[in-house]
Amino acid sequence: MKGLRQVRERAGYTQEELADSIGTSRPNVSAYESGGRTMTLKMANRVLKEIGQSDVSGEELVVANRLKAYKRARESGDVSGMFDAAKAVARIGERYTLTREGDELVDEVVDDALEYAEKVAVGFEDEAEAEDEGGDGRDFFGRRITPLDEAGDDLEEDGDEEDDGRDMYGRRI
Questions:
Q1: How many CB atoms lie within 10 A of CB 99?
Q2: Cα–Cα distance for residue pair 51/2, rounded to 1 Å
Q3: Tens of pLDDT along 63-121?
Q4: CA-to-CA distance for 51 and 53, rounded, in angstroms?
Q5: Higher-confidence residue: 111 or 140?
Q6: In the chain, where does DSSP find H-type helix?
């Protein structure tokens, strides 16, 4: 699947020339090419109209843009960014008719995101791993871990909970 950079270069445009012709800045064009900025379908179609490309659809440029964003987020460990990009790719795949290559890329991204989510979920089933991976008193997401005895749970010596009219979070029941 061709991304913005390949389409731009094939048409003989520099980033600066393309930016001027579509009414944006060169840094924006660079960010669209790298996946650092979300390309809308409107912007993709404006680019294609300006440079006269007919063998690539606006939808494919948007998928290529979100695919790059997905890969950047995956490599940097940005789970939220990764899933945002995967959702965007999946929505494009549902809404628009893509080439076979485009459909395969959509499936690949969605499958990879689901597989990653499953690995994260399975990894947290092991309570020891979920509690303090780095030994710094924080969980996987950087949240401070509060041991149960500090969290306000009153446990008797024999391990039975006292019945003080509160649930495990200290709320009155």
A1: 14
A2: 14
A3: 888 888 888 888 888 888 888 888 888 888 787 777 787 788 788 888 888 888 777 66
A4: 6
A5: 111
A6: 4-10, 15-22, 26-34, 41-51, 58-76, 79-95, 100-123, 127-131
Residue the block writes with tokens 């690949």: 108
- Whether the pLDDT of residue 58 is over 60: the answer is yes
Neighbour tally for 19: CB within 10 Å: 18
Q: Phi and psi of 155, rounded to 5°?
A: -115, 135
Sequence letter at residue 91: R
Q: Is 171 left (phi over 0), alpha (psi -120 to 50) or beta?
A: beta
CA torsion angle for 74, 80, 86, 90 (degrees, to 10)?
170
Q: Distance from CA of residue 156 to its chain's centroid?
A: 45
132, two tokens: 């303090």
CA dist., res. 32 & res. 10, Å (int): 16
Mean pLDDT confidence for 35-64: 87
